[in-house]
Amino acid sequence: MTQLMEMLKKIHVLLEQAVLNQKSYLTQEEVRDLFHVGNKTIDAWIKDGLRKTQVPTESKSRIYYSRKDIDMYMNSKKI
């Protein structure tokens, strides 16, 4: 039973990551979850060139990151 639960948790995580990989814009929380990093790491990425994005249809108080910008940043840093 324990092995089954562990396997189901792993499947759940993989499905969540697949959903995040399909989104055009990610919140800071989603970026943290997808890359398994903390806020300080994201802050360092921003200082190093990762851009924040304003999503026209969403709340102006939330920080978003374009998936395209994230991919370009990661490719430029070979992360």
Would you summarize the structure shown here?
The chain is mainly alpha-helical and 79 residues long.
Can you put this structure into words, describing what you see?
The longest helix is centred in the first third of the chain and has 21 residues, at 2-22. This protein has helices at 2-22, 28-35, 39-47, 67-77; strands at residues 25-27, 64-66. The protein is globular and about 45 Å long. The protein has a two-stranded antiparallel sheet with strand order 1-2. The chain has a domain at 24-77. With 79 residues, it is mostly helical.
Quote the average pLDDT: 85
The multimeric state of the shown protein is single chain
Tell me the radius of gyration.
Answer: 15 Å
Uncertain segments are none
Instruction: Label the structural class.
Output: mainly alpha
Shape verdict = globular
How much helix is in the residues? Answer: 55-70%
What is the count of helical runs? Answer: 4
As a percent range, the share of strand residues is 5-15%
Q: What's the SSE pattern?
A: HEHHEH
User: The biggest beta sheet, please?
Assistant: 2 strands, antiparallel
What spatial order of strands do you see in the largest sheet? 1-2
Organism: Aerococcus sanguinicola
Protein name: Helix-turn-helix domain-containing protein
